[in-house]
Amino acid sequence: MTLTVDIECRLGAFRLKTAFTAGEGVTSLFGRSGAGKTSLANAIAGILRPERGRIEIDGETVFDAERGIDVQTSRRRIGYVFQEGRLFPHLSVRQNLRYAWLFTPQARRSDRFEHVVELLGLGHLLERRPGNLSGGEKQRVAIGRALLSDPRLLLMDEPLASLDAHRRNEILQYIELMRDEVKIPIIYVSHTVEEVVRLADTVVLLSAGEVAAIGSAEEVMGRTDLRPATGTFEGGAVIDAKVVEQDMKDDLATLAFDGGTLTAANVDALVGEPVRVRIRARDVSIALERPQRISIQNVLQGKIAGVGPERGGIVDVSISVGAITLRSRITARAARQLDLSPGLEVYALIKAVSLDRSGASPA
Fold first, then answer.
1. Greatest CA separation found in the chain?
2. Buried-most residue among 69, 130, 187, 358 (CB within 10 A)?
3. What is the predicted pLDDT for the residue at 227?
4. What is the pLDDT of residue 359?
5. What are the mean pLDDT values of the chain's consecutive 10-residue runs (363 residues total)?
6. Of 157, 57, 152, nearest to 110 (Cα)?
7. Of 79, 61, 51, 46, whose CA–CA distance to 157 is shortest?
8. C-beta separation of 281 from 224 below 8 A
9. What is residue 361's predicted lDDT score, i.e. its pLDDT?
10. From CA 198, how far away is CA 309, in angstroms rounded?
11. In 3D, which of 259, 243, 239 has the Cα closest to residue 251?
């Protein structure tokens, strides 16, 4: 299944003009507040009507301005999960979940009720009402209701925005399971780096209503030139790895990747599970010789792949470590002192506590 979007519309002085294609897996609409993420999601859902363009879901045109096609929201077969669960307070969890069937033709009603309940860990909540649920539990019910509507596309508009750090991490784990389970495009709206790094297969970076960049999470989140479009986001490297050891005593995990191993703190994953971590450019130091007797847990050997131009006394250095590229943001003076140039063998130094995996802060 695929989603194809090529639209343009005006909302007062704001113009939304975007084009992209999304397949199975998670496509994140990422960008700072006001970039147009929610407006784009609403246009896909049929809540907002574009002035120009076309939207196609699974081969069906649901909007085409020139041909006068504008399929109503209820017929687009889209599951929409909002920032708040929007559950019916007078209905039980079971009834809220089954409500999804009311607007679904009998032939398409999912027989996967028990499977969805198990996937999202809702079994012990079925007879409760929303007033007796935590924020995280409400969002899990909302996700389950969206899945049971037999959608061919799932829209999630900052579903973790109203949750505290513990609940956000809890729901992230469930969304990861769901991402690997369902075989439909998932459009995930977020301005939080942590969520995008953990979930996204593809990132569509929006800035002032337009697509500033599109690509894999590693490509887009690793670029150091995109800060104007992302606000406080800082470039770096996104690494896909696997947990090979958990030191429960010190709460440290060993992660294997295409370049060696990393030691990371507070990784909420079991041995054998895949994880994705982000290493910010400012958290990578460079040494010409392997240092001895230091507190830094990660010392990776690599080669300089490139040295960027100086901006305000700062340069960004690319370091090839195996099949991945780390980025280091250092002073121009340090780059001159080390005489950094492409091909030079160096050591990248990274604190275990600086790897972003499950921390609450979007940094």
1. 71
2. 187
3. 62
4. 34
5. 94 94 93 91 95 95 96 91 85 90 68 85 93 90 89 91 81 84 90 84 93 88 67 71 93 93 90 89 94 94 94 92 92 96 97 70 32
6. 152
7. 79
8. yes
9. 33
10. 30
11. 243
The phi, psi pair for 172, rounded to 5°, reads -55, -40
Residue 96, phi then psi, degrees to nearest 5: -65, -40
Q: How far is CA 315 from CA 234, 279, 348, in A?
A: 14, 17, 15
Tokens of 244: 């090979």
* Residue type for position 22: A
| Alpha carbon distance 275, 239 (integer Å) | 8
Write the Ramachandran bin of 156: left for phi over 0, alpha for psi from -120 to 50, otherwise beta.
beta
3-state secondary structure the chain: CCEEEEEEEEECCEEEEEEEEECCEEEEEECCCCCCHHHHHHHHHCCCCCCEEEEEECCEEEEECCCCEECCHHHCCEEEECCCCCCCCCCCHHHHHHHHHHHCCHHHCCCCHHHHHHHCCCHHHCCCCHHHCCHHHHHHHHHHHHHCCCCCEEEEECCCCCCCHHHHHHHHHHHHHHHHHCCCEEEEEECCHHHHHHHCCEEEEEECCEEEEEEEHHHHHCCCCCHHHHCCCCCEEEEEEEEEEEECCCCEEEEEECCEEEEEECCCCCCCCEEEEEEEHHHEEEECCCCCCCCCCEEEEEEEEEECCCECCEEEEEEEECCEEEEEEEEHHHHHHHCCCCCCEEEEEECHHHCECCCCCCC
| Predicted pLDDT of residue 148 | 87
